[in-house]
Amino acid sequence: MREPKGLDVEKISAWLLQQVDGLVAPFDFALIPAGGSNLTFCVTDASGRKLALRRPPVAARIATAHDVGREHAILAALEGDASGVPVPAVHGSCSDESVTGAPFYVMEFVEGTIVRDVETARALDPAACTRATESLVDTQIAFHTLDVDAVGLGDLARRRDGYVERQLRRWRKQAEASKTREVPLLAELHDRFARSVPKEQGRPALAHGDYRFDNTVLGADHRVAAVLDWELCTLGDPVADFCWSQLYWADPDDEVAALQSPPTLHDGFPLRDEVTDLYARRSGFDLSDQDWYLAFSWWKQACIVEGVVARLRQGAGGGMKTAPVEDIVARVDRYLDLAEQLSRRWA
Questions:
Q1: Under 8 Å CB-to-CB from 267, ≥6 apart: which residues?
Q2: Are residues 31 and 143 in the same domain?
Q3: How many CB atoms lie within 10 A of CB 151?
Q4: Is 267 in contact with 73 (CB distance < 8 Å)?
Q5: Is-contact 259 302, C-beta < 8 A?
Q6: 248 is in which domain, residue-wise?
Q7: pLDDT tens digits for 43-90?
Q8: Strand partners for 236
Q9: Where are the beta strands (DSSP E) in the chain?
Q10: Consecutive H or E run containing 238
Q11: Who's near 65: CB < 8 A, 6+ residues apart?
């Protein structure tokens, strides 16, 4: 069988047998299609037990991204019932790049449903959609109100305040680092946002950075059984993190969507405004600056997807079929246009 790109099967197999009790060789390694960032492999041993292995992309890595060691530390801190945040159990990390060319970590493979698109969502009846929605919101509130010091994540960021300011610097820097074309509106909006950041609410929270249905696993009861993909997690403003998540909650009349096939277009799900009301009611946070945060979030989305364009042009991928690069470039421009339109409401 062909060896998966990015893995040295012999060396990783030896590492697994030494690190994780009860495994039986040989192992099967299968790439889980998941975009162009960190790579996730399903590892199945000879007894049928499954683990998940995460490593950075093989090509086109960004210096300040893809830190799987940090991601492992976050999962380890949240593991167990005390945090109230369901995550997979972790079994160890490896920083020795001689094993497979990059750091990696291994966690338990959580069985369940990942609602990636509207086709998957159609398997859920209205009652299941309601349970999934409420659980998605309640889980986000759980890590937004978590005592980060109590779980050992108080030093996750060098600063606890100024989340949006940090995000503005980070994503403009990464957009510049992966620049393949001139995008004047990206810089113009950055400056506009930097002059008008809303005041943060409450204490700094755990901001996941990419929270949505397809970064969670739903259990048989249609509630969140595990939250995945903590690559972008930091300490920050919970309202900004929630509004970022709302980009992925598409409504039927939306002209622009962050996903190609948003699962929330299934008619069993509530509309975005209803989800916003649910979060505000249960969390107690004030969402009166939502338009500002949504405009900022579409700008940030444009920066991220501009980075995806650069990685795709350099040959990086996560096993998924992607649209032509020209179509992705056009998507970036639509995101920036929407950010600009929203910014007119408060500019």
A1: none
A2: no
A3: 20
A4: no
A5: no
A6: 118-343
A7: 999 999 999 999 998 864 454 457 899 999 999 999 988 899 999 999
A8: 205
A9: 28-32, 39-44, 50-55, 90-94, 104-108, 205-207, 216-218, 224-227, 234-236
A10: helix 238-246
A11: 37, 174, 231
